[in-house]
């Protein structure tokens, strides 16, 4: 099976890319801080394998958020289409969504798209 068929597209309104970026960044920061303890705390293997996908997604979201922030004039009324690769959807559903404290609208959009993958992937840990 080609994984490109499992990619999902979500529509993000003005400001939503930054919120989703902050959620992913919060998780990445917590992982980085755990490794800097005097006795480093080991990272779960599943999370360790999801880190590259989360970093890639965060980088793309940051560029989109910066484009929104640098825009001159009133905010965009049309939503921006954002493609989430299958591994990014899985990483967000398994590692970001359970520990998130905000941005429920954006996570709801990712979760809705994740329902399309239920027949391929089981999201319950």
For the structure shown, list the relevant keywords.
125 residues, mainly alpha, two-stranded antiparallel ribbon, 4 helices, 2 strands, 54% helix, globular
Written overview of the protein:
α1 (16-34) packs antiparallel against α2 (45-70), α2 packs across α3 and α3 (86-96) crosses α4. The chain has 125 residues and is mainly α. The longest helix is centred in the middle third of the chain and has 26 residues, at 45-70. Strands 1-2 form a two-stranded antiparallel sheet. It contains four helices and two strands; from the N terminus they run βααβαα. Helices cover 54% and strands 8% of the residues. The mean pLDDT is 82. The chain has helices at 16-34, 45-70, 86-96, 104-114, and strands spanning 8-12, 80-84.
Quick structural summary:
With 125 residues, the protein is mainly α. It has helices at 16-34, 45-70, 86-96, 104-114; strands at 8-12, 80-84.
Provide the spatial order of strands within the biggest beta sheet.
Answer: 1-2
Q: Please tally the helical runs, counting DSSP H or I stretches of 4 or more residues.
A: 4
Strands, count: 2
The mean pLDDT is 82
- How would a textbook summarize the main sheet? 2 strands, antiparallel
Low-confidence stretches: none
Q: N-to-C SSE series?
A: EHHEHH
Spatial gap, N to C terminus: 23 Å
Q: Could you tell me the strand content as a percent range? A: 5-15%
